[in-house]
Amino acid sequence: MNQHVTIDERIALRDDERQPCEIWTRVMGYHRPVSSFNLGKKGEHNERRFFSETRAALR
Fold first, then answer.
1. In the predicted model, is pLDDT for residue 3 greater than 80?
2. Among candidate residues 8, 37, 12, the one with its CA nearest the CA of residue 23
3. Residues 6+ apart with CB under 8 A from 42
4. pTM of the full structure
5. Could you tell me which residues come within 8 angstroms of residue 2 by beta carbon, excluding any fewer than 6 positions away?
6. Does residue 15 sit within a domain?
7. Residue 33 main-chain phi, psi, to 5 deg
8. Is residue 8 left, alpha or beta, with left meaning phi > 0 and alpha meaning psi from -120 to 50?
9. How many CB atoms lie within 10 A of CB 32?
C-alpha cells in the first residue's frame, strides 16, 4: 500500500525544550569553546566581521 503523509505544521519548541548551541572558534592553532573566554575575549569575538569573497573576473 502506498501512503503519502504530508505534515503542514511547523515544529515549535518552548524555550525550556531547547538545547543551547555551543560555539567553538579557532584560537592560536587550536579550537576552544567561546563560553570559556574571559569577558574581554568574548567582546572581541562579538566584534568580528564576516565577509564574502566574490570570484575574480577572468580576462
1. no
2. 37
3. 34
4. 0.49
5. none
6. no
7. -75, 140
8. alpha
9. 13
Range of the domain at 42: 21-46
pLDDT (tens digit, 9 = 90+) per residue, 11-52? 888 889 888 899 898 878 899 999 999 999 999 988 988 888
> What phi, psi does 24 have (nearest 5°)?
-115, 150
Assigned C-alpha cell, 2: 502506498
DSSP secondary structure, 8-32, as one string: -SPP---GGG--PPPPEEEETTEEE
Q: Which three cell numbers stand for residue 16?
A: 525550556
Residues 6+ apart with CB under 8 A from 22: 33, 34, 35
- 59: its cell numbers: 580576462
Domain presence at residue 25: yes
In a domain, 27, yes or no: yes
The DSSP letter of residue 38 is -
